[in-house]
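Quick question, first post here. What does this chain look like in 3D?
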Amino acid sequence: MTLKERAYALREAAMIDGDEHGARHHKKITTDIAMSFMSALLNLELTASGPVSVDSICEQYKAILNEVNLEFYKSYDKDVETIVSSIENRVKYMRLDEHGPRLGPITEE
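> Answer (accepted):
Ran it through. Tokens below.
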């Protein structure tokens, strides 16, 4: 399995929406399912290449989680880009545009 395939499989099997802060921004990985997933993954690799160290297990799990989170980071980056663009456009309209209210100079305060 490729890293993307592993991430997709883990996300589909173990990711749930959190209760505390809403489903969009709060996700959880079910620990027992994640442990089973990694165990099954490592058993497949163990038969092919010998024993696997704890550091190797952690690095593989970290890489898979980073791939799972990549989609959410991209969504976050898009949201931030929209926010910054909206602020810039609002400041231009309120302070600089000829057709805007021209409320005065832009200051750092």
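The mean pLDDT is 87.
Residues 3-71 form one domain.
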